[in-house]
Please model this.
Amino acid sequence: MKPYAIGVDIGGTSVKLGLFSSDGTLMTKWEIPTITDNNGSGILSDVAHSISQTLAERGIGIDQVEGIGFGVPGAVDENNLVLSCVNLGWKNVDITKEMTRSLPGCPRIRSANDANAATLGEVWKGSGTGRSSAVMITLGTGVGGGVVLDGKIIPGTWLCAGEIGHMKVEPGDNTPCNCGKSGCLEQYASAKGIARMARDMLAQCDTPSPLRDMDPFTAKDICSLAQEGDPMALAIVDRCAAYLGLALSYVACTVDPGIFIVGGGMSRAGDVLLDPIRTYYRKNAFLNSDQTPIVAARLGNDAGIYGCACMVLSTQ
Amino acid sequence: MKPYAIGVDIGGTSVKLGLFSSDGTLMTKWEIPTITDNNGSGILSDVAHSISQTLAERGIGIDQVEGIGFGVPGAVDENNLVLSCVNLGWKNVDITKEMTRSLPGCPRIRSANDANAATLGEVWKGSGTGRSSAVMITLGTGVGGGVVLDGKIIPGTWLCAGEIGHMKVEPGDNTPCNCGKSGCLEQYASAKGIARMARDMLAQCDTPSPLRDMDPFTAKDICSLAQEGDPMALAIVDRCAAYLGLALSYVACTVDPGIFIVGGGMSRAGDVLLDPIRTYYRKNAFLNSDQTPIVAARLGNDAGIYGCACMVLSTQ
Model:
C-alpha cells in the first residue's frame, strides 16, 4: 500500500477533494468550483490539475498515491463509466480515460454514486465506525441513500440500490415525483417535500402556527418551530418521521443492517426529528431488528471524500 | 474439493436430504420424518444415521464428503448455532457439536435459515442461474424470503434480512400478524392471508362468485377460480398482487437485485398471479429497476437441499 489516497466528491456547484494518508487520516481538504460549461467536459481536467498542484505543494509524487476515488451525483458502473449525470451534463463519461489523459502517472481509479460513497465514508470514519453493515438515508433537496454490507457498497443491478427516497410510502397519492412516478418518500421527507406536505396539512386544518405567517417557509423553519414546541410544526415533523420510520423498516426487512445513519441538511434538526423516526421504526420493524440504532451522520459534507478514499484503501 | 456434498433441509414434518457431486449434480435425494419429541433432541442424530446409511449403501466414505449444509426453519448464526426454532422445539442447538457427536468423521458444517438456503439454491441451479444477485419471496403458509447478493446469502444483523412478509404494506390495518405487529404483507399474500382478505372483500361487496358457496375456501380455490376468469377471484388476486408488487419495489429500492423469484405453494398459480405482480412492480419501481424480471421458482421443494449443498461447495 502506497502512503496516500485521494477522495474526490463531485457536486453540482463544487468539487470537494481530500488527501488522505493510507491509515485513513484526512491530511488536507479543499474545494474547486464545478464548471459545467460544455457538458462539464473540463471538470475532470480541473480535478487533475488541482490534484497535481496540491501534491506538488506538499512534495508528494503521484507515484506515492495508491489511488483516487470519485463520488459522482449519478449512475456510475464498476468500470468507472458515468452513464448519466444530469447535474454535471455528463453522459457516458469514462473517468479512468479522462483522468489518465489529464494526470500523468494517474494511479488506479475507483468510483461510486455520491450517496453510496458518503455511506461508505460514514461507515469507515463516521457514525457507522466498527459496523460491517449500514444503511444511510440523506435528507436534502431530495432523499438519497446508500447501502453498505460487509464493508462494501451495494450499487444494485441497475445502480438503483439505496434509492430509499423513491419507495412509494403513499401509493394512493398522485403528487408527481421527479422520478416520473408518485407517492415517493421524497415527496414527504426531502426539504422540498416536507414543506409541500406542510402546506397541504396547514390548508386542511385550523391549528394556529407561526408557519401561517411565513410564506414561503422552509424545512429548516419547520424543524426550528418543532424544536420550540409549536404543535403544528411537531405534527408535520411527526408525519414526515412516520414515513421515514416506515421506509427504514422496509429496508430492515430486506437487508437488516447494523445501523441506520441519517444525514443531509434536515438531519441537523437532531432528536426532534430522529426520536419520532425511531419510534415509528420500532413500531414497524420485524422482531429483533427493531433494536437497530438510528443515528445522525457525523462527517457532514466530508462523508463523500472519506468514502471515496476508502474505496481506494479498502480491498473492495 | 472432495467429490461429494450433502444438503439437509429440516422442515417441521420431514427432513429432506440430497447427495450432490461437487459439480452440483443431485445424485440422490430422500426424506426422513422429523421427530420433534423431547424438543427435537433426536433430529440431528436421525440425520447423521440416515447420512451414514446412504453413504454406506453407495460405498462412499465420509472422508469423500466436502461438507454438510443445513437449512433450518428459524434463526441460525454464522457459527451454526440455532438460536431458536419453534417448529422443531429447538433453542440454542449447536449443529456442529451435535453432528460431530453423531457422525464419526463429520466434515465441515454450514447452515442457514431455510428460506435463505432455498434462495441460494434457486440462484445456483434454478430460476436465478447465472445471476449474482436475487431476491426470492416464498408464498406459503406464511410469506418468507431470502436475499442473495454477489452469490452470498445476506442473513442480516439480527437474522431478519429477507423477511419481506413482514413489511407493513398496510400500516393502517390492525389485523394482527403472528409477528406481534399488524399490516404485514403476510396478512394479504400468504395462503392464509389471501383467504382472510378474500372473506373481508366478499363481505364488503355483492359481486357474485362461486367462492360464496365454498366455505371454507383456500388460496388454491381463489387462484383456480381466477384462472377460470371469475371476476371476484381476479379482484382478490389483483389486490394480493398489488401488495406484492409494492413490497418488491421496496426491495428494489434497497438492493436492486438482478431477479425476483416467486416460490411457495401459491406460486403454482403461475401467470394469473405473476402478471399482476409484474404490473404493480413496474408501476412502483424506480427508474431502470422496473425492468427486473419476476419469475416463478423452478426447483420446488428441492430448492433447500440445493442451497444447502451450495453453501458447502461455494466459497462463501
Observations:
- Chain B has two domains: 4-120+302-313, 130-298.
- Residues 195 and 224 of chain B are 13 Å apart (CA to CA).
